[in-house]
From TrEMBL:
InterPro entries: Cyt_b561_bac/Ni-Hgenase (IPR011577), Cytochrome_b561_oxidase (IPR052168), Di-haem_cyt_TM (IPR016174). Residues 11-181 form the Cytochrome b561 bacterial/Ni-hydrogenase domain. The chain crosses the membrane at residues 18-38, 50-70, 98-128, 148-169. Its cofactor is heme b. GO terms for biological process: respiratory electron transport chain. Belongs to the cytochrome b561 family. This is Cytochrome B561.
Amino acid sequence: MALPFGDEAARYGAVSRIAHWLTALAVIALIGLGWVMADLPLGAQKLELYALHKSIGALVLMVTLARLGWRLAQRGPSGHAEHAPWERVMAKAAHVGLYAGLLAMPLTGWIASSAANFPVSVFGLFTLPNLVAPDQALREAAATLHGALAWGVVGLIVLHAAGAVKHHLIDRDDTLRRMLPLARRPSR
């Protein structure tokens, strides 16, 4: 059976699943690139990795904005009545935190680049306008916030994944299957 385009009461549709996993892969790439490029000496390789990091970050910002629009237009799957109230609160808080991080991370990176007067080229296809005038103090503050947010997003990702695994392996419910790319229709 084909996966529906839109979300249903019992599972996420193709758009939500593709956007979720595209974002997950992009964030994993960004974390890896950020880790590697920070330790490289200034040179062509470091600049290439920064350019790739900025391009993927811009893609994450665009996909996240589209996801938020989609979320507003789609009801999405209903929650599980058997989940404890604290689990529902934690899930909601983690999702809000992840969306906030997926917006704040690219924006602080873009501000840092703008303040350093290094334009953000998106895969060489187009260049984003500078958000601020060159300002070394602002660049440093935005870069510091960008790094701190990265650790916060990593923590939320770990919490999000741990919750999904807990529901799958311990609770044995369909929470994880509702978002897996090729999962069958839940039996609820």
